[in-house]
Design goal:
Layout (H helix, E strand, L loop, with lengths): L20 E2 L7 H14 L5 E2 L2 H5 L6
Parallel strand pairs: 1-2
């Protein structure tokens, strides 16, 4: 018996957020800088918004 795997067009999740927070540590080394560049590129098409962990502790609006 062979069953086909059915894949939905767009997976959904009950925990899907309106804004996806992107947290990155830029650091001072090459890997951190690459991670930062990737994060910036993800914000351009609207895949998420760069956020800062300090903002959470400071209770800034929008985080």
């Amino acid at each position: 018996m062979t069953e086909e795997l059915k894949v939905t067009e767009k997976p959904t999740c009950a925990c899907e957020a309106a804004i996806i927070g992107l947290y990155v540590c830029s650091g001072i080394f090459d890997v951190g800088q690459v991670a930062n560049k990737i994060t910036v590129e993800l914000t351009k098409p609207g895949k998420g918004k760069i956020m800062c962990t300090i903002g959470i502790g400071g209770n800034f609006q929008g985080l």
